[in-house]
């Protein structure tokens, strides 16, 4: 059995742990051989691959990013994209393909499996933690830890100058990073995509905090929107999957707060620092288990499935089901943390 592996979409702490788990178990227990396709779907589109064996994955467990590279290449928008992928998989004598990615990358995998008969296994990857079929995705814990540490640090500088600090974190459609890091970091307001926010209410929370002689921290997800407006963007450019490139709402909100309250406000956009660096212990553990179970699914011939975390168990679900809808923050959960606002 010859197995191909690729990592697509935004890079994420824990990707290398998945690759290592796949290769170690596949070689040691099943005597499989492996190749890694470079830069997401670009690899199988262009036949760009490298050998993967145990020496190739040695020492990569604590490394961030992905040794295979990644991209947002969308083969469904490439001329003869599906045909080229199938031809290159056949040319490389690949019997099965393990695809590690998020909503978009796995959406392509689902099409390949369901409509074109490609033998695919999916592994969920997104720091946003927004895939509905799994309790957690690896990379999320690391991102929350990085954001929480940043908020902890920003408290002291905010209080030194008695100014508002707005912290913009990742989260296009789901506010899980903002919710977890904001609560853990003692933010005075947390704004998420699932709940449109009232600028006047945010300013009221800010003013309340100042009356208590403390400097407020506002955590906002990049996809959060004001109640009486649209998504705030720096530009309207799109990626290959049609997603607008986000960032800018933090700066916009800081200006609104400053204009309406008269208090000085500054913005910190954490951006890609949330994706970078070494993965947390939890993300290494989860990513490794996903890799081990993904290669088991290949052995069992259970294609068209994605491995997922349910409680403490790793289960398999149809890839199409996993990408059918996003996992967003429940309104009751958001209301629960609202006691700390203001």
Would you summarize the structure shown here?
This protein is α/β, with parallel strands linked by helices and 342 residues long.
Sequence-ordered SSE layout with sheet pairings:
Blueprint: E1 2-7, H1 15-30, E2 33-37, H2 42-46, E3 49-52, H3 54-57, H4 81-91, E4 96-101, H5 103-116, E5 120-124, H6 140-161, E6 164-169, H7 176-184, E7 189-191, H8 199-211, E8 217-221, H9 249-261, E9 265-269, H10 281-300, E10 305-310, E11 313-318, H11 319-322, H12 331-337
Parallel strand pairs: 1-2, 1-4, 4-5, 5-10, 6-8, 6-9, 7-8
Antiparallel strand pairs: 2-3, 10-11
Helix pairs in contact: 1-10, 6-7, 8-9
Family: Belongs to the phosphofructokinase type A (PFKA) family. Mixed-substrate PFK group III subfamily.
Subunit structure: Homodimer or homotetramer.
Catalytic activity: beta-D-fructose 6-phosphate + diphosphate = beta-D-fructose 1,6-bisphosphate + phosphate + H(+)
What features would you describe in this structure?
This protein is of the alpha/beta class and 342 residues long. The protein is 40% helix and 17% strand. It has helices at residues 15-30, 42-46, 54-57, 81-91, 103-116, 140-161, 176-184, 199-211, 249-261, 281-300, 319-322, 331-337, and strands at residues 2-7, 33-37, 49-52, 96-101, 120-124, 164-169, 189-191, 217-221, 265-269, 305-310, 313-318. A 7-stranded mixed sheet has the order 3-2-1-4-5-10-11, with helices on both faces. Helix 1 (15-30) crosses helix 10 (281-300) and helix 8 crosses helix 9. The mean pLDDT is 92.
């Amino acid at each position: 059995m010859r197995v191909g592996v690729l990592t697509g979409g935004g890079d994420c702490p824990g990707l290398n742990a998945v690759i290592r788990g796949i290769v170690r178990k596949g070689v040691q227990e099943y005597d499989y051989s492996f190749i890694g396709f470079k830069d997401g779907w670009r690899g199988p589109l262009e036949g760009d691959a490298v050998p993967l064996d145990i020496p190739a994955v040695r020492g990569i467990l604590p490394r961030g990013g992905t040794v295979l590279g990644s991209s947002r290449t969308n083969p469904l928008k490439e001329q003869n994209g599906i045909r080229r992928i199938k031809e290159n998989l056949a040319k490389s004598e690949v019997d099965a393909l393990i695809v590690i990615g998020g909503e978009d990358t796995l959406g392509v995998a689902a099409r390949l499996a369901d409509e074109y008969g490609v033998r695919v296994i999916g592994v969920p990857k997104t720091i946003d933690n927004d895939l509905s079929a799994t309790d957690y995705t690896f990379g999320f814990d690391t991102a929350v830890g990085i954001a929480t540490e940043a908020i902890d640090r920003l408290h002291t500088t905010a209080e030194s100058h008695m100014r508002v600090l707005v912290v913009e974190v990742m989260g296009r459609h789901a506010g899980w990073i903002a919710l977890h890091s904001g609560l853990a970091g003692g933010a005075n307001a947390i704004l998420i995509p699932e709940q449109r926010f009232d600028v006047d209410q945010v300013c009221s929370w800010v003013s309340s905090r100042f009356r208590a002689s403390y400097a407020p921290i506002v955590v906002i997800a990049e996809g959060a929107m004001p109640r009486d407006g649209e998504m705030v963007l720096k530009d309207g450019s799109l990626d290959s999957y049609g997603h607008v490139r986000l960032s800018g709402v933090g700066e916009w909100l800081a200006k609104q707060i400053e204009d309406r309250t008269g208090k000085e406000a500054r913005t910190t956009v954490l951006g890609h620092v949330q994706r970078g660096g070494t993965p947390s212990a939890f993300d290494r553990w989860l990513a490794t288990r996903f890799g081990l179970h993904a290669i088991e699914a290949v052995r069992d011939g259970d294609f068209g499935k994605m491995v997922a975390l349910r409680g403490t168990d790793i289960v398999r679900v149809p890839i199409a089901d996993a990408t059918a809808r996003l996992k967003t923050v429940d309104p009751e959960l958001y209301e629960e943390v609202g006691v700390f606002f203001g």
